[in-house]
Write a structure and sequence with these properties.
Length: about 500
């Protein structure tokens, strides 16, 4: 059978993708200690290399191929203008150790991004240093710790975390040295206000809440929840991963939230997946600004404004080399400026509309975890399908046959057989209808031909992978297949 060759198998001695011109300066030998023998470089032509990597890219799903309804992750389309702007030589070719006088434009962009993020969310100050949402959480919780310590308030050892939270929330609290108190959800999917009342006290450093939460629901008691925690002397951290639902509509700062991270790679359309780079800026209320990690860039007013670095007075210290992932700041800046205030509000309105359209079109075929008007995402349960032996994992695998990325599955943990769908605002009605049709067909199959679903995927390059092994013993290196020993070869 013909098998696509791997790049090393395409290799032919002497083939080249580039021709390096003859040097016009005297040749100088490289230091001997830098040279290594026996490196197994493939030798291939340009077209072989291009075809190899293009084929590889086709084996995986991508937002540029089809819908990617991965709940909680906000996999929206990344406008290509972001990429073009991030590649401007004045942004891509500068170095963080350059004299600030020579990179004033880049610093101005960072100041304006800080200001726009602060305005959109109702905070007084923002750091752009953290490299991801989880990193922003750690930054925020360290700020909360520094705040209590600065007041000599050392008895606050606990952080309240709802049971619907993303796993990074309790992990962050523990990393920052706190004990986690898990707060259950109420019957409508809010954090249980009565339990907040029971647990908020003199040992509470704060609450880490996600609003809208990971069930895709607006917390109906958010104002009261914030009041109770504040009254107990704690601070309220908002996990801003779901900010995409409320841009231009509600500002966490106005709700009394003290600290929040933004996921630029979710809400503000910078690319994510594959390990990043992401960006997780953190916004704080005015009296917490002195604890932000430094250095931070600021504007110095004058005839001609200047931009300079400064260290906040009681900074928790540096959380990232240099100034964070600057290329992501450029992309998010471009996205925000491109949309403007009215455009950002429309982003959220469309994201919420799309999610509710999907929910309304699916609720007769799937159990709905908490059947309320949803925000930008919602959670179904595969319980009904499970009675026919079809698990949520099978439904996810079957969606691959339709060329669709599966939704988030088995999260949040409080919903059995969870299927968490987030369409985002960038999907057209036609692509939403395609996703609906696929899920409805799978619901039919689960009743009539369950083996079609449990045996899926049928049309992908690879079938079911051993996901546990892939996680535990991840190996991304290509290694040359072992040549069979001569005796083995002779035997077959
Ligand atoms: C994505 C997400 C996080 C973590 O953000 P990363 O950027 O992936 O580190 C935290 N909380 C929620 C609710 C999320 O969806």
């Amino acid at each position: 059978m013909a098998v696509e060759p791997l790049i090393h198998e395409l290799s032919k001695p002497g083939r080249r993708a580039v021709r390096i011109p003859a040097p016009d300066v005297p040749e100088t030998p490289l230091p001997q200690e830098l040279l290594r023998d026996g490196l197994d470089w493939p030798e291939a032509s340009e077209i072989d290399v291009i075809r190899h990597y293009t084929r590889l890219s086709q084996k995986n799903h991508a937002i540029d191929i089809n819908t990617y309804p991965l709940g909680s992750c906000t996999m929206k389309y990344n406008p290509k203008i972001n990429e073009a702007v991030a590649r401007y030589p004045g942004f891509a070719g500068i170095h963080p150790l350059q004299d600030p006088a020579t990179v004033q434009g880049a610093l101005e962009l960072m100041v304006e991004l800080q200001e726009m993020l602060a305005e959109i969310s109702g905070f007084a100050a923002v750091t752009l240093q953290p490299a991801a949402g989880a990193h922003g959480e750690l930054t925020g919780v360290l700020i909360m710790r520094a705040y209590h310590r600065s007041r000599g308030d050392t008895g606050r050892t606990k952080i309240l975390v709802p049971d619907s939270a993303h796993g990074t929330n309790p992990a962050t609290a523990v990393m920052a040295g706190f004990e986690v108190v898990t707060i259950p959800s109420d019957a409508r999917g809010n954090v249980d206000l009565e339990q907040i009342r029971v647990h908020a006290g003199p040992d509470t450093a704060g609450l880490m809440i996600t609003n809208p939460n990971t069930l895709g629901l607006w917390d109906e008691h958010i104002a009261e929840v914030v009041r109770v925690v504040h009254e107990a002397g704690g601070l309220v951290y908002n996990d801003g991963a779901n900010f995409n639902a409320i841009l231009g509509i509600a500002r966490p700062g106005d709700l009394g939230i003290d600290v929040m991270h933004y996921n630029l790679h979710k809400t503000f359309s910078t690319p994510h997946g594959g390990g990043g780079p992401g960006s997780g800026p953190v916004g704080v209320r005015a009296d917490l600004a002195e604890f932000l990690p430094g250095p931070i860039v600021r504007r110095v007013d004058g005839d001609e404004p200047r931009y300079e670095w400064f260290q906040p007075a009681r900074s928790v210290g540096r959380l990232h080399t240099f100034h964070g992932n600057f290329g992501m700041h450029v992309r998010a800046y471009c996205y925000i400026r491109m949309h403007g205030a009215a455009g950002l509000r429309l982003v959220s309105e469309d994201a919420v509309l799309n999610a509710n359209y999907l929910l309304a079109s699916l609720r007769d075929r799937f159990d709905v975890a908490y059947d309320r008007t949803c925000m930008h995402e919602f959670v179904l349960s595969g319980n009904r399908q499970k009675r026919n032996g079809v698990r949520t994992l099978d439904i996810a695998k079957r969606l691959l046959d339709f060329g669709l990325h599966p939704p988030t599955t088995y999260f949040p943990l409080i919903v059995p057989e969870a299927i968490m769908i987030e369409p985002t605002e960038t999907e057209s009605k036609e692509s939403l209808d395609y996703l609906i049709a696929a899920l409805r067909q799978i619901a039919d199959e689960a009743e009539q031909t369950p083996e079609v679903v449990t045996g899926a995927p049928h049309r992908t390059e690879y079938k079911r992978l051993d996901e546990v092994a892939a996680n535990r013993t991840l190996n991304l290196r290509w290694t040359r297949p072992v040549e069979p020993a001569p005796e083995a070869a002779a035997a077959d």
